[in-house]
Amino acid sequence: MRHLHKALWTVAVVLMAMLLKSCIEPPLHLPGQEILTEVPIVETKLEVVWNIETEWTTQWHYGWDVKDDSIWGGIGYEHPEKFQVRRYFTGDDPDAAHSEVDAFSINDTSFRRFFQFGFYDILLWSDINSKDGTQVLVINETLDEVTATTTGTRGLSRSISRLVGSEEVEDTTAVVGLFNQPEVFFATYPEDVYISRDLNDYVYDPVENVYIKKIEAELKPLVYIYLVQIILVNNDGRIKGINGNAAMSSMASGVNVNTGHTNNSPSIVYFNTRLKHDVDVNGALCDVIGGKFTTFGLCDMEPYTRQGNIYSGSRTELNNFLFFDLLYSNDGVKTYSVDVTDQMQKQAHGGVVTIYIDCSKLTPPEEPEKGKGSLFVPTVEDYMDVYWEIEL
Question: Is pTM, for the whole model, over 0.70?
Answer without folding.
Answer: yes
